Amino acid sequence: MTVNVYIFSMSATIKEIAEQAKVSIATVSRALNNLGNVKEETKKLILNIAEELKYNSNIAARRLAKQQAKIIGFVLPEIEGEFFTDIIKGIEKEAYAQSYHVIVVGSHSERNIVESILNFMKRSLIDGVILMIPSLSEQIKDIISASKIPVVIINGKNEANAVDTVSIDNYQGSYSIVNFLIKNYHYKKIAIIEGPSNNNDALERFEGYMAALKDNGIKPKDDWMIDGDFTSKGGELACSRLLSLLKKPEVIFASNDVMALGCYKVINAHGLKIPDNIGVVGFDHISLADLVSPHLTTVHVPIEEIGQEAARILFERINGTAKGVSHLKISTGIIVGDSCKIQEAN
């Protein structure tokens, strides 16, 4: 006997459950899939809401009708922060259009990333995985190459030629904004707060900074190249070091907006004004960059588009419509705020 299952309405998304439960998307994903630590009271609330919205029943119905899990996984290094939240939005938007659900797992170390990937690979209810990690170790490459399910990597550098990738054009974005500072504002004393040394996005942004200086005949200064970690605290500490120098830079290029906002805090605490005393620029164009005063000049990255494109490529793999290996690089632009000013010509 053939059983036909008809679904007349789209099931609830993880985002809708998160909004009703007043928790993060990641917490909902962990609770629904029994991954990670979630308080029992919170887990019960999430499961009750999911049941009311017929989240799980619609998944089961689609499995019977399609003989597919209709679930994809997303492994990322951190879950906190607007950047990662927007990527999740992009993935879920494309997944929603394909009638899929998304399991989100945050991994805080290389070991956790490996465990998360292996966990997904072992789960028969996963049709594909999007993996966002700072860099690819040989162990992770081996796991991916041995995988029987499709994998798409969001990464700053193409380290796996045989695997579909989506990345930001970090070099272009960094080069463009540093060149913009030199050509339009006549800055010559430009400092950089770098990202983590093991992060390909950070490395490419540093390379773009160095190339722009070189092409404009400006010699880089070691004291003005400070390590950072892509966190607000990291931006604060790096900015404090720059402000303590006898020969201070005219402008600080923070390798992401979160560190740039950390600079704002320290500069204001020192009784200085942006951009009168020192300029600040960032990278990513998160929404907070438009809310601070003065508005931050920054590199615009279509963050949600990154997640959506990664999901689109993954579904082409799942549906068997992919034409060759895809290496998509997302271009950037410059958002001009009020955090810089034209310098007097020397």
Description:
By secondary structure, this protein is of the alpha/beta class. The chain has 2 domains: 14-167 and 303-330, Rossmann fold (3-Layer(aba) Sandwich), CATH 3.40.50.2300; 170-301, Rossmann fold. It has helices at 14-21, 25-33, 40-52, 55-66, 82-97, 110-122, 138-146, 170-185, 200-215, 232-243, 257-269, 303-319; strands at 71-76, 101-106, 128-132, 151-154, 164-168, 190-193, 225-226, 251-254, 279-284, 297-300, 327-330, 333-335. The strands form 2 sheets. It has a 6-stranded parallel sheet, sandwiched between helices. Helix 6 runs parallel beside helix 7 (138-146). The protein is globular, with a radius of gyration of 22 Å. The model is unreliable at 1-11 and 60-66 (pLDDT under 50).
Descriptive terms for the model:
six-stranded mixed beta sheet; 346 residues; 2 domains; Rossmann fold
Could you write a compact summary of the structure shown?
The chain is an alpha/beta fold. The chain is 45% helix and 15% strand. Helix 1 crosses helix 2 (25-33), helix 5 runs parallel beside helix 12 and helix 8 (170-185) runs parallel beside helix 9 (200-215).
